[in-house]
Amino acid sequence: MTNIDQVITTGTQILVNGLLFGSMYGISAIGLSLIFGTMGIIFIAQGTMIILAAYLVYLIKLNYSFDPLLVSFLITPLFFILGGCIYFLLFRKVADKGKNPNLLLAFGLMIMLESLISLFFSPNTKAIITGYTTIGISIMGIRISLVRSIAFVISISTTIALLFFLKRTLLGKAVRAATFDMLAASLLGINTIKVCAFTFGLGLALAGIAGICVALTYPFDPYFGFIFSLKALIAVAFGGIGHVLGSFLGGLSLGIIENISSYLFGGVWEQAISYAAFLLVLMLRPQGLFGGRE
Question: Which string of b and e fits 35-58 if b means at least 16 CB within 10 Å?
Fold first, then answer.
């Protein structure tokens, strides 16, 4: 293999790894973007909900030996219902009092969930091992993990299905209208309370799907969710608030940036470069890389 071939293979490997990692950031960011775009709530507990889903997958796998992919048919509707309940019980009452109470409430929920997860499952790192965890696929010299490929396919499929729902169904159009202008949507006869509850449920259902992908791919602990919340916020900033496809592309971009940074400068600089890119986007293009003009 010549030096040029080696460079091409290495570059492609970095790009593929970035896309595989970034797809999980993307699916996490979509839920966060929908909630913030519709209700103005920075749901900082989104990452902790993802880890809660991962622990539920771990618990079911441990006790019943169900494959994590089959558990998705239970986790997704469960988290959708949980999201609606959280909206009605917590956020609806403070929705009209500004963004600060919402942020504090989300932060308090995150801390409470982290403590409860640590109490019930211990703060030790957990991991799910399946029969295909260590399987890798080699294509033209590019090594691809099977579980990360599965997570990528799940993320892509979920994003496509969500885009179809938002653009082709009446309820999806109501969600888009509320995201664009809540007051105008209510004047047009849309029940904004139900739309907000549905959107919150949808955001947490996406967190459940992301949690299944995390459980397949990463070791995790009760405090790992905060990192995912930060990564989702960066992906949302890259993609643009309320922009579903943009948020997913923002997550892919973040994954690529992290992998390039880790390869060129080492893992120590990975986070610093990601946050620097985040600040540059906020300063130079606050509507996001994939969002529309102001």
Answer: bbbbbebbbbbbbbbbbbbbbbbb
Q: Looking at the predicted structure, is the pLDDT value of residue 257 above 50?
A: yes
Give the H/E segment covering residue 23. helix 3-39
Q: In whole angstroms, what is the distance from residue 53 CA to residue 76 CA?
A: 9
Q: 């957990």: which residue's tokens? A: 126
With contact defined as beta carbons under 8 Å apart, do 161 and 154 qualify? no
Q: Does residue 55 contact residue 126 with C-beta atoms inside 8 Å?
A: yes
- CA 262 to CA 266: how far, in whole Å? 4
CB–CB of 199/175 below 8 Å? yes
- Report the alpha-carbon distance of residue 224 to residue 63 in Å, rounded: 23
SS3 annotation, 166-180: HHHCHHHHHHHHHHH
Q: Report pTM.
A: 0.91
Per residue in 8-38, pLDDT (tens digit) is 888 888 899 899 889 989 998 998 988 888 8
Q: Quick check: 99 pLDDT over 70? A: no
- Tell me 98's DSSP state: -
